[in-house]
Design a protein that fits this description.
The chain has 11 helices and 17 strands. The protein has 440 residues and is α+β, with helices and mostly antiparallel strands. The chain folds into 2 domains: 248 residues, BirA Bifunctional Protein, domain 2, CATH 3.30.930.10; 93 residues, Alpha-Beta Plaits (2-Layer Sandwich), CATH 3.30.70. The strands form 4 sheets. Strands 3-7-8-13-12-11-10-9 form an 8-stranded mixed sheet.
């Protein structure tokens, strides 16, 4: 059984760089029976694992900030789908039912675990994907829409992973009737003509196959047409996003079979960019159960989801995902709304590595995401990455020893060894207090 942390949604006294001699005991979090999130209080329970560091990110909504690279990318995609509804105002707080069950996630899906997702309590969580609003939007009568939002997942710490990131969901549904299929065919003809005139090479796969089947409730001919429409629409989007950067060479796009709980058939899209294949997004034909739950009868359609940071890091040449959260004008001043330009690094400050070794608590153990969340909550974006460098089980006591190396590196300034030592001391104190580990 994986260890479930004690409730940690409470006010944490943050480290003050100027208060160098502050006791580490004073920096330990106080326990509370409630979590204050976006101005409201919610009871905590054994599932609670949301942290103050994550709570502080909820109001920021980077995709709405003028001149920010994520906002530029969002508006570029919205311009491509100009006749779609553009949505971005949904609360990040959802029920597990809305986040998982409405989308046919199996009961044992790992995403439901407290080690993978952030819970305010067992009945309320932070959305892990924009698809959490699919049923709601379809139920409102929208047939063509884009939804952009911040999403939250517990994850490792490195240059390409962050517990908060931004997704864009796109969807389109048609009448499952001869009239609706004629609309799909006409759109397929229009898009095919456009792509045939463009400098693009598409490595396609069958729209439906035994390993990537249509749904039993769908007419296979309808599913084939809709899957083709999805591919053509996204090939056109890839041309908009990446075509201008390939100069005289054709843009190369390839399709790969995939599995997602909420679509079938399902696909991933890759683009060959700057010498390598890059995974861009996932997509597929919407599960009929999703439309049935939304009370949208006799419809069939497609949906896709993409991570804005992933694409922005590629297009803007941004090397570290933490930079999107920077308030440093040396970063922010490089970007103008509507323009995609190459980021120019202004400095790379030195690293300061600190190791921590400990005996994991018994019998629960300690999940790596719990450790990473603790480090983030103490040190915020002063940590570049965390790596497990050693693990062994004592042959006599059967206790597990773990050693993690924390790489402290600010994006904006040099860190002194003294202040890093003080941050590390708080990490160690929190480890002992919150998880009951024995430091080696």
């Amino acid at each position: 059984m994986l260890f479930r942390p004690r409730p940690v949604a409470r006010v944490l006294r943050r480290i003050s760089i100027t208060s160098r001699r502050q006791s580490t005991d004073a920096l330990l979090p106080s326990r509370s029976n409630y979590a204050e999130v976006l101005g409201s209080r919610y009871p905590t329970d054994s599932a609670t694992n949301i942290t103050p560091a994550i709570i502080s990110k909820l109001p920021l909504r980077l995709h709405t900030k003028p001149d920010h690279p994520l906002n530029t990318l969002r508006t570029k995609i919205e311009s491509h789908y100009a006749d779609f509804a553009h949505l971005s105002s949904f609360s990040p707080l959802v029920t597990p039912f809305k986040n998982f069950d409405e989308l046919a996630f199996p009961a044992d899906h790992p995403g439901r675990s407290v080690t993978d997702s952030y819970y305010v309590n067992r009945d309320l969580m932070l959305r892990t994907h924009t698809s959490a609003h699919e049923v709601e939007v379809f139920g409102q009568g929208e047939t063509k829409w884009l939804l952009t939002a911040d999403v939250y997942r517990r994850d490792e710490i490195d240059g390409s992973h962050y517990p908060v990131f931004h997704q864009m969901e796109g969807a389109r549904i048609f009448d499952a009737s001869p009239t609706g299929m004629k609309e799909v065919e006409d759109d397929n003809e229009r898009l095919s003509y456009h792509l045939a005139q463009s400098n693009i090479i598409i490595e396609d796969i069958p729209h439906i196959s035994p390993t990537n089947p249509s749904q039993a409730t769908h007419d296979p001919r309808h599913s084939e047409l809709v899957a083709k429409n999805l591919k053509l629409s996204l090939n056109s989007l890839m041309l908009t996003l990446f075509g201008g950067a390939t100069r005289d060479e054709p843009l190369r796009v390839r399709w790969i079979e995939a599995y997602f709980p909420f679509t079938s058939p399902s696909f991933e899209v890759e683009v060959f960019f700057r010498g390598k294949w890059l995974e861009i997004l996932g997509s597929g034909v919407v599960r009929q159960s999703t439309l049935d739950t939304a009370k949208v009868p006799n419809k069939i359609g497609w949906a896709f989801g993409l991570g804005l940071e992933r694409i922005a890091m590629i297009l803007f040449s941004i090397p570290d995902i933490r930079l999107f959260w920077s308030e440093d004008q040396r970063f922010l001043s490089q970007f103008t709304h509507g323009q995609i330009n190459t980021f120019k690094p202004y400095s790379r400050y030195p690293s300061c590595f600190k190791d921590v070794s400990f005996w994991a608590p018994q019998p629960e153990g300690l999940h790596e995401n719990d450790f990473c969340d603790l480090v983030r909550d103490v040190a915020s974006d002063l940590v570049e990455d965390v790596k497990k460098i050693d693990s062994f089980v004592h042959p006599k006591t059967n206790r597990t020893s773990l050693c993690y190396r924390i790489n402290y590196r600010s994006m904006d300034r040099s860190l002194s060894n003294e202040e890093v030592n003080e941050i590390q001391a708080v990490v160690v104190a929190r480890l002992k207090d919150q998880f009951g580990v024995e430091i080696r």
